[in-house]
Amino acid sequence: MKLIVAGGSGYIGRALVKRAAAEGHDVLVLTRRRDDELARYAAQSGYDGPLPATYVDADALINLAGRAHVHGRSTDSDFDAANCQLPLMLASHVIENGIGRLVHVSSVGVYGNWSAEPITEYSRPSPDTAYTRSKLAADQALEDRFRSRPDALTIVRPPMVYGPACPGNFMRLRRLVRRGFPLPFGAARAKRSFIFVENLADFLLRCATPGRPGGMYVIGDGSDYSVSHLVSEMAVDDEKRIANISVSPWLLRFFGRACGFQREMESLTLPLKVDWAHARKSLGWEPPVAPSEAMRTSLVDYG
Fold this sequence. Notes:
Elements: E1 2-6, H1 11-22, E2 26-30, E3 43-45, E4 60-63, H2 76-96, E5 102-105, H3 130-145, E6 153-157, E7 160-162, H4 169-179, E8 192-196, H5 197-208, E9 215-218, E10 223-225, H6 227-238, H7 249-259, H8 262-269, H9 277-283, H10 291-300
Parallel strand pairs: 1-2, 1-4, 2-3, 4-5, 5-6, 6-9, 7-8
Antiparallel strand pairs: 8-10
């Protein structure tokens, strides 16, 4: 395939570009500044101006670009520019240049921070942050833009992505376990879905393949873990005995609200599982890396 990847320099983007190159695909990365590492795997071009002539008939444009959860101040307009206006610009590239389809990566966070029932494509959106509101706005705007050509749009909503040296809470928890501090998550057994970065990259390539049906996909790979389970897995890998005290999840959420960490404690103690049966049925997709192997790889490769 001939592919264009926006956001190829990010964590997921690098895994995707390397996997695509290894499979023999011709890849162009849209980037704001040249990346010497990615130059080994793909051509590069800026966001501004026309696409290079050799890519105007690409099979797909995969969009991973955007503004994620960041520390410090970010306004709704900051998120709107990166997570809504940029995808619409990329959609114009697809429509005006005869590109086969847009594969747009959204977030399962558009359904809220927790759910008692597994999330499906039919679950009601309930975004609760500026980030997730901008993601939902982009999804809706893209669906409107491709209303006359719905098969040319695929929207993918993954849960938290993990893998070797991944950013975010997975590695923060990993560092706490490695330091051997007592932790209060022994009773935090509510499961949340994750997806291994290599499995997500594989799924995005499946979505980009000509002839595959478009539409909306909530995606997972069977990596469903509670924070208590994660602490145990990490401690075993480190050969450490961790004091993981069984504090009531309700009490953890109470102190979280009192200390300004309500959302973080909800993420640690409340469920958010996804049902990705639609991806299996519609695309015939199965994750190439099993959850047990994915977790082992993620922990072994921790620096």
